Every structure is written in structure tokens, then in C-alpha cells.
Amino acid sequence: MFGVTKMSIGLQSYPELYTTLLGLGLYDKLWELLTQTGIAYLPFIGIILKNITRCYVRNGSGDAGPTSLRSMETNLIITILVILFGVAPCIPFDAHTVSYSPECGISKGETYHPGDTGTTYDKAFTLPSDDIRVPMWWYAVISISEGMTHAANTMLGCPPDLRRMVTAVGMTQISDPEIKQQLKDFESMCYIPARMQLNQDKQKNVSSHLDRIQRDIKEYGVEDTEWLGSHSLNDVYYRNLKASRAIPEFTYDASDDLNLDVSRVNQPAYGTPSCFEWWNNKENGLKEKIFQSLPKSFFNEYKNYVNHVRAQDDVVKRIISNAPNGYENANNVIGDNGYSHAIAALGIWYHQLEEYPKLYAASQAAPIIQALLLLMIYVFLPFALVFSCYSPSAFVTGAILIFSVIFWGFIWHLVSWTDSALMQALYTGWFAKQGAGATLADMVIGSLVIFSPIFWFIFMGAMGVAAGDIVTSLSMGLNKIGSTAAEEGAENLQTAAKMGSKALM
Questions:
Q1: What is the number of other CB atoms lying within 10 angstroms of the CB of residue 139?
Q2: Taking a C-beta distance cutoff of 8 angstroms, is the pair 274, 286 a contact?
Q3: Do residues 243 and 275 make contact, with C-beta atoms less than 8 angstroms apart?
Q4: 3-state secondary structure 426-486
Q5: What CA–CA distance (Å, rounded) separates 409 from 11?
Q6: Crossing angle, helix 408-426 and helix 136-156, to 10 degrees?
Q7: How far is CA 140 from the centre of its chain?
Q8: Which of 171, 161, 165 is nearest to 357 (CA)?
Q9: Would you tell me how many other CB atoms lie within 10 Å of the CB of residue 59?
Q10: Adjacent-strand bridge partners of 100
Q11: Cα-Cα-Cα-Cα dihedral sign, residues 42, 46, 49, 51
Q12: How far is CA 200 from CA 204, 210, 214, in A?
């Protein structure tokens, strides 16, 4: 309809790229359907009938004509302008009109468009092949709403996503069957024999061993001897214990082979390392292989939080305890996933909140819910505008509704910022068993993720109703001015007619 220069609109998430494009495309088609069927013109009939009957009831049959005509003109002009700028699609809109630039994370600074995001959404959604056009009003509303949300997010900056860090460890599984088997073998060949020797040393009071163990316990905690990678057992016993079978990727050492005469004929492909080497080897050790189960970017992104030994130990313990067949007896420090003891006292809202993924899943689902809600709003808009008889108040209310949903992006960013702050303040360790303070923080954040957008929506809904009422009052004021002018004109005509008739008489 008009030659309008397109501007790029920055959106808040990958799914919103597709739902915005799909929703506005459906808006265009549905408006075309409404115009072709004539439904879009029904409000004009309502405006004409409403003005005729209203003026007739108020002023009687004598003055109804001029009054209704002037009021009708005012309403029709307002309606036509509303349709022109706020209903009829006119601005071209395609996949290059919208973009998404992550504000935080490893993709910060990159810009993505529908169809080339590198995510599974590219396959799930098909880009519209037809030309899409968008009304001026809604294009401006979406642009301003997205721009304000982006600016607000920028003010908060990029706090470390500690919830994602903890969840990444909590959800990491050891998938390699060989590593699982090695963990079982390490427990039976190294950990259990070492614990037996420790118990014997305690009975015999072997001070040379017990003193070293006490020093390690003082540094690493009283639970140090209760897991496979114990520093105490590594320092005192693991060096003198070794694997009883060949371990893949460890070099065969003939000087350490008790069956050297047999092995000379058929030399083993792998060696039998000491338990210390088996656990601590920088390339093939169990500890290193467990670390490799994490995403490659984990240690680069969160290096400041896992750069000390205690945190690294907690990471290994947590990943081992995640195994389906488990090693809880050897890792009972976090056997309950760190929350059950506090939930028993505090948790009546959240059943079994001991698992981090619940909060993380809620935060990850939030942008998808937001994108789908926007899709529904864009699809319903043509019907809402027609059924409201193109009321100006409906446009203001709809604009505030769209802004409210888009601004959820900032609300969740604020919740994420608060979450990281509370975790740093109340958590005693990132991956180990937590106290009541940490559980309280989780309950607060869980509530905010769910209820803060709802509260914002209710608040803005009230503001939208008020704004809509203001616009309605202004529109009624314009009608009143037209009606008053018509009434005055009719009175003047009547006066002039009476004066003319008297003059003729």
C-alpha cells in the first residue's frame, strides 16, 4: 500500500524469530480473509446504525438528521484512520526484518535470522514463501517494545549463569560403557582395599599413615575418605595398590609385570597402572575422563568457579553419583543430590526440589512460552480489532498487551541476575550438599520465575484498561464535539427558518 523502508527488529530468543514471522504472516492472511468475506466491513454498518439510533433517541426525529450525520462523519473518519494505520497490512516483512543477537553467553555479539540460527528450530519451522505485510501501528509497537526490552537487559549486563553451571553438572551422565566399567573396577580394586587398609591402620594406630590422613582431612573435609577420589587415600594407599587387569590407554610396563615370562610371548596391549596413576593421570586418568563428560565450553565459561581443588572434587562426585547404577556408597557426600534434608523442613511448595533441572527447565521454557503467546496474540489480533469495531481503545490495550509479553524477556533476565546473586550469597558450595539457606534461595527463585511475569501482566493489564478508557473518553469527546456542533447548527437553522417565516408573514 505504501512504500515504507524496512527496519530490522531485534527479538529476544530463537523461537521468537519464527513465531513472530509466522504470527504476522497469519495476521496478513486472516485480514485478507476478513476483507474478502465482508466481515471486516460489518463495523461500518454498526457505526451508522449506532449514530442514527443514538441521536434519534437523544434529540427526537426533528434534530436527529444533522446530529447523526455529523457524529457519523466523526466516527467514520476515526475508523478509517484507525484501519489505515493500525489494521491494514502495508509494511513488507520477511526473514531479514527480524534478528536475534544473544546478549550473554558464548554467542554474544552474533546475529541470527530465521533459517540460519544453527538450532533445531531451523528444521522445525518452514519460512513463509508468500510476501508478508504488517500494519504500521503494530510494526511500531513491536519495534519499540523489543528495543526497550533490549535496552533494559543491557543495563543489567551479563551476570554469570550459575544456575546453568550447576545444572550442567547435575545433568551430566557418564555415557561411555568403558568408563562406567572402570569406575566399578576402581572401586573394587582400589577404593575398597584402601578403606580396608585404613581401618587396619586405625586399629593398629599406625601414626605415620594416620597423621598424613588427618592433614588431608583438615584440608579437604571430614568426608574426604568417603569417595573414590579421596586425597587421603591417594596420598597414603593408592600408590601401593594397582589395577588387577589391563586398563585401556595405559602403557604396558615390563618392569612392573609379575608375569613377565608369559608376557614376553604375547605382550599385553595395555598396562596395569597404580591406583594413583589410574585416577590422576592427566590424559587417561579416571578423573580427567569424568571431566570430559562435561560440555567442552564448561571450564572456559566457569573457570573462576571450578579453579580450586574442592570445587573440582565436588564436580567429580556429582557426576559419579548421577550414574544410573550409582556409586552412592562410595560417594555418600551428595547421595541425596544436596537438598532432601532441607526440603523436609521447608518444602511444602515444591515436592522433591532436590533436583536442579526443575528450576533450569522453567527458565529455559520461559522464552518458548513467551514466543508462543506472542504468536497467539498476532493471530487473534484481526478478529479482536474487527469485533471491537476498530475502537481506538482496543489498539492501545493491544499495544500494552504486546509490550507486556515482550517485556517478560527483561523480567526473566532480572530473575536470572537475582538468582546468581542469591546463589553466591547463600550457597555453601556449588555442587556439594546444600543447607537450608540455599534451598530457601531456590524456592524464592522458583516463585519468581513463575509469578513475576504474572504479576507484571496483571499490573500492565490494569494500566492497559486505564489507557484504553482514556482513549475511549477522548474518542467520545470528539463525538461530543461533533454532536454539539451539529446541534448548534440545527438550532441556528431553526432560528433562521423561524425568522425567515416571520419576515414573510
A1: 21
A2: no
A3: yes
A4: HCCCCCCCCCHHHHHHHHHHHHHHHHHHHHHHHHHHHHHHHHHHHHHHHHHHHHHHHHHHH
A5: 10
A6: 10
A7: 25
A8: 171
A9: 18
A10: 11, 112
A11: negative
A12: 6, 11, 16
Instruction: With beta carbons less than 8 A apart as the criterion, state whether 131 and 92 touch.
Output: yes
In whole angstroms, what is the distance from residue 228 CA to residue 245 CA? 18
For residues 264 and 98, which has the higher predicted lDDT (pLDDT)? 98
Say which amino acid occupies 134: V
H/E stretch holding 103: none
For the purposes of burial, counting CB atoms within 10 Å of the CB of 70, is it exposed (0-12), middle (13-18) or buried (19 or more)?
Answer: buried
CA distance 167 to 16: 24
> What is the Cα–Cα distance from 287 to 277, expressed in whole angstroms?
10
Closest by CA to 187, choosing from 295, 288, 369, 325, is: 325
Does 141 have pLDDT greater than 70? yes
Tens-place pLDDT, residues 268-314: 667 778 888 888 888 888 888 888 888 777 877 777 777 778 888 88
Residue 284 and residue 278: Cα distance in Å, rounded? 8
For residue 497, give the 3-state DSSP assignment: helix
Cell of 237: 594407599
Neighbours of 203 (CB within 10 A): 8
The DSSP element (H or E) to which 156 belongs, if any, is: helix 136-156
Q: How far apart are CA 275 and CA 252, in angstroms?
A: 15
Computed on alpha carbons and rounded to an integer, the radius of gyration of the chain in Å comes to 36
Beta bridge partners of 242: 274
HEC per residue, 345-356? HHCCCCCCCCCC
pLDDT of residue 346: 38
Residue 399 has pLDDT above 50, yes or no: yes
Q: Is 144 helix (H, G, I), strand (E, B) or coil?
A: helix
**Paired sense of beta strands 9-11 and 98-100, if any:** parallel
Pseudo-torsion of CA 259, 240, 197, 174, nearest 10°? Answer: -90
Q: What is the DSSP letter of 242?
A: B
Look up cell 427558518; give the residue: 497
Residue type, 277: E
177, with CB counted inside 10 A (0-12, 13-18, 19+), is exposed
Place of cell 500494552: 400
One-letter amino acid at 52 equals I
